[in-house]
Amino acid sequence: MKAWQIFTHSVRQVFGNLTDALRISGLLYIVQMMIVVAMGVTSGETMQANPAKMLLIVVVALVFSLWIAVAWHRFVLKGEGGTSLLPPFHGNEILRYLGRSLLIGLVVVAVGAVAGMLMMPLGVMLAGPLAGAMIASLFIMVPVFMVMLRLSIPLPAIAMGQNIGFNEGWKATHGETGVFFGLALLLAVFSILLGVPEALFRPDSIPALLWTLTTGWVQMMVGVSILTTLYGHYIEKRRLV
């Protein structure tokens, strides 16, 4: 099953190059999380009490996350390495990556809103509030991930200073709906499973914070690697090994 191959290839891409993954993303991710925690976002009151502070957190998270994403794409696809704990800052590519990501985000939000209106009431009605919410979340995430993944295929090209439109990425994956459904389902289940152990910890405890930070890094790196794998396979015609 190609969806499983893409998913496992992407996971191996991270953990098979763990030293490089930590070198490229570790310092930036830790600093980003330190800023978030220092500003009290985990208290759940930041957005209401200080919108300006929340805006700053969002900007920091965006810049650092895109910095990591562009550096990781370039490492995997171009072999751009180095020994520094701070990867090169490709400003133009990061800005273009951000612009394209915002456009994708608008589409994804619309798809998620429609799926949510359809699935959430149905899930609660069939399985009760808790189980229904989890089931509905799965059925919401799958179409959202399907659309997001197909639209995001040009992003690695942008990271490398190239230009590929949405249409080219969509055409390259024509006839692969089943693959993207399977991949979206795997990614959704993966995300839900990573979140389950968090319920075992007290919300404001150190173990809960450590788990959230660790799983956040794993989700970020696997997600970026999936986009890298999709671009490499469908655009550059690389084999899935």
Notes on the protein architecture:
The chain has helices at 2-15, 18-38, 46-49, 51-78, 91-127, 129-151, 155-159, 166-172, 177-195, 206-234. By secondary structure, the protein is an all-alpha fold. The chain is globular. The protein contains 10 helices and no strands. The chain has one domain. Helices cover 78% and strands 0% of the residues. Residues 42-47 have low confidence and may be disordered. The protein starts with a helix and ends in a 7-residue tail after the last helix.
What's the structural blueprint in terms of helices and strands?
Blueprint: H1 2-15, H2 18-38, H3 46-49, H4 51-78, H5 91-127, H6 129-151, H7 155-159, H8 166-172, H9 177-195, H10 206-234
- Molecular shape: globular
Structural class: mainly alpha
Helix content: over 70%
| Head-to-tail CA distance between termini | 13 Å
Radius of gyration: 18 Å
Indicate the proportion of strand residues.
under 5%
Q: How many strand elements?
A: 0
Low-pLDDT parts are 42-47
How large is the count of helical segments? 10
Instruction: Characterize the largest beta sheet: strand count, sense, and whether it forms a barrel.
Output: none
* Mean pLDDT over the residues: 86
* Assembly state (oligomeric): single chain
Order of helices and strands: HHHHHHHHHH
Q: Total domains, how many?
A: 1
Transmembrane segments: 21-42, 54-76, 97-120, 126-149, 178-196, 208-231
Keywords: Membrane, Transmembrane, Transmembrane helix
